[in-house]
Design brief:
Chain lengths: 112, 113
């Protein structure tokens, strides 16, 4: 059974803080993704990674960075949190030849 | 115009009804078509996926793709209260050699006992 875990379910941070969101998958998947989900906008891709130390920008990378030092772990970093980054953040992973992305439970981030 | 359009609802139907959920898209390069189900406070989980035009059935669920009209549907027969969730359509394309999923907004569905 594929498992994708995210470090926190809920986070409250202040404007300007540096925020780390961690994602771990246990299925040795090559591909990992970070999305944010907002009402009326659906899921939007922030960054993805197809291998260790590799990263690609998604549709809305501004204000975010990522790190993939180990295959099972993909971190999303908000360098200086802003109120417009209040959102639900979802991590997903995928085995290369397959189509299915497996999602974590999400982190609901509130930036005050 | 969004690449994928999905009515956000909410949609509320009585138990046992047939539910029809739909998405339209504009990019003819989309290939794989998927439906994800997302329960409240959970991540999305894949429900069904299909590649070609036509129907694909899995239990009470049927996914339908009409590439000529750029229209996909998910039908739920004999709907149950446990089907209450947000349903997201998603479509895969390849941009600069990388696979990318584009999601619809999601339709919030409630099945009333």
């Amino acid at each position: 059974d594929v498992k994708v875990t995210q470090s926190s379910r809920y986070l409250v941070k202040r404007t300007g803080e540096k925020v780390f969101l961690e994602c771990v998958q246990d299925m040795d998947h090559e591909n990992m993704f970070w999305y944010r989900q907002d009402p009326g906008l659906g899921l939007r891709l922030i960054y993805f990674s197809y291998d260790v130390k590799m990263k690609e920008k998604g549709d809305i990378p501004e204000g975010y960075s990522v790190s993939r030092e180990k295959k099972e772990r993909f971190s999303l970093i908000l360098e200086s949190a802003s109120t417009n980054q209040t959102s639900m953040y979802l991590c997903a992973s995928k085995d290369s030849p397959r189509e299915t992305q497996y999602f974590g439970p999400g982190t609901r981030l509130l930036v005050l | 115009q969004k690449e994928v359009e999905q009515d956000p609802g909410p949609l509320s139907v009585p138990e046992g009804a047939i539910v029809s959920l739909n998405c339209t898209y504009s990019n003819s390069a989309f290939q794989y078509f998927m439906w994800y189900r997302q329960y409240s406070r959970k991540g999305p989980e894949l429900l069904m996926y299909t590649y070609s035009s036509g129907n694909k059935e899995d239990g009470r669920f049927t996914a339908q793709v009409d590439k000529s009209s750029k229209y996909i549907s998910l039908f739920i027969r004999d709907s149950q209260p446990s089907d209450s969730a947000t349903y997201l359509c998603a479509m895969r394309t390849i941009i600069q050699g990388a696979q990318k999923l584009v999601f619809g907004q999601g339709t919030r569905l409630t099945i009333n006992p």
